[in-house]
Amino acid sequence: MEKSSLLWYKKNFPRVTIYGAIASSFLFRKYYNLWAFDKETICDKFVDRGVPLVQLDEKFAFYANIIEELQQLPTTFNIQCIRLNLKPLLDSICQHAQEWCTTLGEKLAAKNVKNIDKMRLEIKELSTNLNRATKELSDFKLVMQTIDTIQTTTLTKEVKIREMQETYTTLSEHRILVSSMLVRKSTVSGEGSMGDRQI
């Protein structure tokens, strides 16, 4: 290396190194949103909007793809004679992506649990009214009204039950574990359809 080139290199080494570090950081700017926003608030709003399950599935797939993409990146980056260890950064971003999946899954499961409890109470009330002893005319009218309610809402409730089951299936497919998920899933499956109840 010529003397003039060597002098230039020594003089500009800090600047070149800093520019190289800044350039390498730009590679990760597209993941900024993963740590810039509050996961709890965003996921709450997203689930409360009642978006279709297919969109939620796409969200889980989106974060899973980010993790897979990051895991394929090299864990070191060379700037001149300096080698940057990117593994802590990559691991941190992957952790944020996984936390988005987990938080969204927990919010979705919590909403599912509320829907299950609500439906269980509705079915219990219908069952109680249906099995009421018809001693008075009012009792007979209530039983007939209950039968009519069951006949008109059976299909809707069966669709809701299937949606709940599909929700847990989606969480399971993306390996998102939430507390009491399996218990709640078996509860939904055990409810059966309203059409199976005695009329």
Give a verbal description of the structure.
The chain has 199 residues and is mainly alpha-helical. The protein has one domain. It is built from 7 helices and 2 strands; from the N terminus they run H-H-H-H-E-E-H-H-H. It has helices at 3-25, 33-36, 39-48, 53-71, 87-130, 137-173, 181-191; strands at 76-79, 82-85. A two-stranded antiparallel sheet has the order 1-2. Helix 5 packs antiparallel against helix 6 (137-173) and helix 5 (87-130) packs parallel to helix 7. The protein is rod-shaped, with a radius of gyration of 28 Å. It starts with a helix and ends in an 8-residue tail after the last helix. Mean pLDDT is 79; it is low at 181-186 and 188-199.
How are the SSEs ordered, and which strands pair?
Blueprint (H helix, E strand, L loop, with lengths): L2 H23 L7 H4 L2 H10 L4 H19 L4 E4 L2 E4 L1 H44 L6 H37 L7 H11 L8
Antiparallel strand pairs: 1-2
Helix pairs in contact: 3-5, 4-5, 5-6, 5-7, 6-7
GO molecular function: dynein intermediate chain binding; dynein light intermediate chain binding
Keywords: Coiled coil
InterPro entries: DHC
Q: Which strands sit side by side, in order, in the main sheet?
A: 1-2
Tell me the total number of β-strands.
2
**Biggest sheet layout:** 2 strands, antiparallel
Provide the structure class.
mainly alpha
State the low-pLDDT regions, or none: 181-186, 188-199
Strand-residue proportion: under 5%
Number of helices: 7
The tally of domains stands at 1
GO cellular component, one term: dynein complex
Keywords: Coiled coil
GO molecular function: dynein intermediate chain binding; dynein light intermediate chain binding
